[in-house]
């Protein structure tokens, strides 16, 4: 489903340019005093609050990667580059937050970091916050 600009909630905010945000980037952006982690994971753009819900670590310093999925004993199933299973790992205690919805892998119903849609408009990377 496509949402046109008139239906978007929030104010358009230019976060970066595409040129400033190559794949592999995880950087802090601040909008009206609020800190966010802006992530380019293999060309997919993500924006989450830059505050881990566990004890407040800045997620812009977290690694972005896949993770081990539940599997049968003696088998290993790494999510790898699967976009639905990419996470940012908190730099302090290691909670993994899915980039698709901000939910913690270990406790998705109770622990999550707020995430936002990121768009590319021309050369700009924007969000409606
Ligand atoms: S502060 Fe993020 S896991 Fe503890």
Structure description:
With 129 residues, the protein is mainly beta. Helices cover 0% and strands 38% of the residues. It has one domain (5-128): Rieske Iron-sulfur Protein (3-layer Sandwich), CATH 2.102.10.10. It starts with 11 loop residues before the first strand and ends with a strand. It binds FE2/S2 (inorganic) cluster (FES).
Describe the secondary structure blueprint for this structure.
Blueprint: E1 12-17, E2 26-31, E3 34-41, E4 44-49, E5 63-65, E6 68-69, E7 77-78, E8 87-89, E9 96-98, E10 115-116, E11 119-121, E12 124-128
Antiparallel strand pairs: 1-12, 2-3, 3-4, 4-10, 5-8, 6-7, 8-9, 11-12
The structure holds FE2/S2 (inorganic) cluster.
Secondary structure tally, helices: 0
Rg, nearest Å? 15 Å
Bound molecules: FE2/S2 (inorganic) cluster
Shape assignment = globular
Query: So, CATH architecture?
Result: 3-layer Sandwich
Fill in the CATH topology. Rieske Iron-sulfur Protein
Portion in strands:
35-45%
Helix content: under 10%
Please write the string of helix (H) and strand (E) elements: EEEEEEEEEEEE
Q: Can you tell me the CATH class?
A: Mainly Beta
Oligomer: single chain
Strand order of the largest sheet: 2-3-4-10
Number of domains: 1
Major sheet: size, sense and barrel closure? 4 strands, antiparallel
**Parts with pLDDT < 50 across at least 5 consecutive residues:** none
Chain-averaged pLDDT: 94
Distance between the termini: 20 Å
**Secondary structural class:** mainly beta
């Amino acid at each position: 489903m496509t949402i046109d600009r008139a239906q978007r909630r929030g104010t358009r905010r230019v976060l970066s340019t595409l040129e400033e945000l190559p794949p592999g980037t995880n950087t802090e952006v601040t909008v009206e005093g609020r800190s966010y982690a802006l992530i380019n994971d293999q060309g997919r753009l993500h924006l989450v609050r830059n505050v881990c819900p566990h004890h407040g670590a800045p997620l812009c310093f977290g690694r972005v990667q896949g993770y081990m999925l539940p599997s049968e004993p003696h088998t290993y199933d790494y999510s790898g580059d699967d976009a639905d299973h990419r996470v940012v790992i908190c730099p302090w205690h290691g909670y993994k937050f899915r980039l698709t919805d901000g939910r913690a892998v270990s406790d998705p119903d109770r622990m999550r970091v707020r995430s936002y849609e990121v768009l590319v408009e021309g050369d700009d990377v924007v969000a409606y916050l």
